[in-house]
Write a structure and sequence with these properties.
single chain; alpha/beta; 8-stranded parallel sheet; binds alpha-D-galactopyranose
């Protein structure tokens, strides 16, 4: 859990913005709710010197000082690069400088690297053409190379794979040291994008587990392009998916509603449950879907989702999800216990909304 600069600041992010995010993550209570990583995305990179050492650009005058500042707040700091010669925003990538860059990260005190395929895709296309096996192997090799370079520094650095879910990355992500891997293209701050990505994560549950997670991309909660019901759907789906929760909004200007969505402790507990099991879809009927995530102690987080454009009644049958009619139900957004009648629970779910329940015997 943490924050990443891209979804709000994109190419404009500066040292001051990152410090501001670190300040706000603490003062808002987000750090205490579990948001620990403060991650700088693309556009911090400057030029390489004659020895090939990569320096920061003028937006980031002193990366070590910035890392020290973030650490002084009880937080960790992340950075971004590409296995290609250029990043997606056309800044300097790590191609043929992997060891050197990993060493710089360790010297600065970096704790997390998002490694984004970007221009390495061109090299793969050139060398592998349509040979799928070779394309896959070239990606494996590129990520493995950076993993080894990070390990060689002796500093524990989380490795986040970003290659948009190509070549079934979930099958090989853990073997190249990936702690998380993007399963999709980029999210944007629109309902259609979030809905398509979130409900598109079917069948990936078995690949996630403690230390290696499917990543359906960062949160857009609070960026302004969706309603609060839509943001609650976003947060609930990501929690059921045991997804990395990386806030992507401007933390220094957050509404109380945004903060309440991001710091709902009962929803975060679903995402962070100790068993580390990812949930999946259990039922779908028209535009309503029920998704279930097994929790420790035999409980189940159960999301009743309405993808339709009008409020809709959704009924949960307790027996169908393996519970007796006496099971306990708690509504995690309303923060209240609710009860079933004759073994089922019916609720009116708003347009693009969700009722997220914890069900236990
Ligand atoms: C790609 C990634 C995004 C972001 C940008 C930065 O598009 O998928 O998450 O990191 O690059 O340029």
């Amino acid at each position: 859990m943490g924050w990443n600069s891209w979804n709000h600041f994109a190419g404009k992010v500066t040292d001051a913005d990152v410090r501001g995010a670190a300040d706000a993550i603490v003062s808002s209570g987000m750090r205490d709710a579990g948001y620990i990583y403060v991650n700088i995305d693309d556009t911090w990179e400057g030029e390489r010197d004659a020895q090939g050492v990569l320096h920061t650009n003028s937006k980031f005058p002193d990366m070590k000082a910035l890392a020290d500042y973030v650490h002084s707040k009880g937080l960790k700091i992340g950075i971004y690069s590409s296995p290609g010669p250029k990043t997606c925003a056309h800044y300097e990538g790590s191609y043929q400088h992997e060891e050197q860059d990993a060493k710089s990260y360790a010297e600065w005190g970096i704790d997390y690297l998002k490694y984004d395929l970007c221009s390495y895709g061109d090299i793969i296309r050139k060398e592998a053409g349509h040979d799928d096996a070779k394309r896959r192997q070239m990606q494996i090799d590129a990520y493995e190379k950076m993993h080894k370079a990070l390990v060689a520094t002796g500093r524990p650095i989380v490795l986040s794979l970003c290659q948009y879910g190509w070549n079934n990355v979930w099958e090989w992500g853990p073997s190249v040291g990936g702690n998380l891997w993007r399963t999709t293209g980029d999210i944007s701050d629109h309902y259609d994008s979030m809905e398509k990505i979130g409900f598109g994560q079917l069948g990936l549950a078995k690949y996630a587990g403690p230390g290696h997670w499917n990543d359906p991309d960062m949160l857009e909660v609070g960026n302004g392009g969706m309603s609060d019901d839509e943001y609650r759907m976003h947060m609930s789906l990501w929690a059921i998916l045991a997804a990395p929760l990386l806030a992507g909004n401007d933390l220094s200007k957050m509404s109380p509603q945004t903060l309440a969505i991001l710091t709902n402790k009962e929803v975060i507990a679903v995402d962070q449950d100790a068993e580390g099991k990812q949930g999946d879809r259990a039922f779908a009927a028209g535009l309503t879907e029920i998704w279930i995530k097994p929790l420790s102690g035999g409980a189940k987080a159960t999301g009743l989702f309405n993808r339709g454009d009008a409020p809709t009644k959704i009924t949960l049958n307790l027996k169908e999800i393996g519970f007796s009619s006496k099971a306990k139900l708690r509504d995690l957004w309303a923060h209240k216990d609710v009860s079933a009648t004759n073994g089922s629970y019916t609720v009116v779910v708003p347009k693009h909304g969700v009722a997220l329940l914890k069900v236990s015997e």
